Each structure stands twice: as structure tokens, then as C-alpha cells.
Amino acid sequence: MCGRKGHRAKDHQPPAQGSLAAPEANAEAIHFLSNLRYLSWKLHIMEQHSQEFIKFHILPMEHKMSLVKQDDQLTMTRNVKEGEEMKTEVTFFPGSSTVGFISQAANLVLLRVMAWRQTVPNNARFLALDTEGKLCYSTYQALGFQTIEVDRQQVRVFIVEQTVHSVKGVPSSCQFYLLSDGHLAKRIQVGSPGYCMIPKMPVLREKEEIEPRPVFGKKPLVWEEDLELSSRFLDRKEELRVRHAGYLRQHPEARALVADFLLFLLLRQPRDVVAFAAEHFGPFASRRPPPPALRSSTRRSPFRSPSPGRPPA
After folding, report:
1. Which of 61, 220, 246, 259 is least surrounded by Cβ atoms within 10 Å, i.e. has the fewest?
2. What is the pTM assigned to this prediction?
3. Cis peptide upstream of residue 15 (ω within 30 degrees of 0)
């Protein structure tokens, strides 16, 4: 159990969203995450810490939030400080309820993938946390391309808008201006007069060309001409001969069984030697169930194909 801080603290067990059902990521979001290359499709968060503050002389505000994965659950700790009053909330989310959850850190990775592909999943509904620390839906929308100035250079950016649909509050949207390799060049909070922008143009990473996998044609294997394979074959042949000879020495009854089979084979001279051998040695099989005490002499053998025009016995 996490420690309590400040004057007031409260622990929550999910779902702490009233009578509303807990949100879930839809199939489009899960499909998009499952097709990410070089990344685990779950994008599980292990640990994340964030801090926001507003410096007012009258009433300064500070928000801190930490996410830590513990066993099969996600622990969220929120510290809200308004003036001298501190509130701490600890919420536990089971692992099953965070499938498709995109944290702030994972959001940057996801935006970079979208910029690299220059596409946004249609109708995908992910999970995120609103300003109150409640699980809610998060959607992405492509706003096209635009040319902006970065470090006195004109660069073309791909714009993606993320909207966090709060359960009870007003949805909040952010627009991300992404360079061709996924670098974040500019960020705008919709409805806010301020924005964030990089002061220096980064070194763009070129797209890697994936070379096709080499195809090797099959070559005939002539093991008789290969010294190593031929030697292995002769060694294995000699090993089996010694093992068979040793088995016959330890089991003299095997010679009697083979001699008995050869005698019946010469006397009856069957057309199908394989079926005759299966019928002869079948009763000696250890895994075969015992035959019934009263068995019909006209019963068809399972080792022979039925004769044409003859009904099965």
C-alpha cells in the first residue's frame, strides 16, 4: 500500500466512475497496436512520472502523477497542491482493464510511428487518463500537412490531433506537428493561447530501405559424394547393426518368431506380404487391445482393403 501524504489522502479501487461501465479500447485500436513493427503491441508502461505547475502569486498550483506497474495491476498516485493544501489519491487499475491504454510516454512513441507512416488509424479508440486521473477514451485524427518555420528553415510537417474524451468533463485536444522522421516540432493545446516549439532543427533520420530476403534455391543432395555425410551414414549403419545383433542375443525368442513367420510365409505364399505380416505380428503389439474371446472367423481384417463386390463382415 502506498503511503499517504499531505493533509488529505484517498485510495480508490476501480472502477471509480460511478455507475458507468469501464471504457475499453476497440478492435481498431488493438489491431493498430498489434501491427507495430519493432515494438511490443501492448506498449505496457512500467513506470512514468509527470509534473505540472502554475505559478500564481495568490494561489500556486502543482500536479504530480506517477504510474507504476506492480504485478498485474497499474498503480496511479496523484498529488494535487493548491496553495498550502495537498491532496493525494492512489488508484489501482487491474491489468485486464488497461488493454489498449496509451500513457503520455507511449503517446510520443505512437505519434512517431504515425508520422513515420504518415497515417492515422481510422475509428481507433484507445484508452488514456483525463485530468482527473480517470480512464477514458482517446482518439487520433490526421489534419494533413503544413509547412512551418523551424530554426529559420521551412519544413513540411504532418499534423495529428489527439482528443481525450473525459468521462465527466469537456474533451481536450492537442495538435502535434511532426517531422518526417517523427520528431515533434510543435505542440498546440486547442483553446490555449500558448504553444510549445523546438528551438533547433534536429538531424532527420532517413527511412531505412528494407532489403528483400535472399532466396536460396534447393540443390540436390548427393550424400554418397560427401565425405562427412557418407562417414556419418556408415557409422550409423554399423551402430544399428551392433544394436540389432545385441538385441537378438538378449532375446533368443525373437529368432523363433521370425523363423515361424518365414515358415508360414513359405507355406501360404500370400499376395500381399505386408498385410500378411501385419496380421501375423498384430497380436504381439503391446498397445493393441486384446481381441474378444468369441471372434467371428469371417471378420474382415483391418489390414486388408475390402474386396470389390463383397459386403463387409
Report:
1. 220
2. 0.54
3. yes
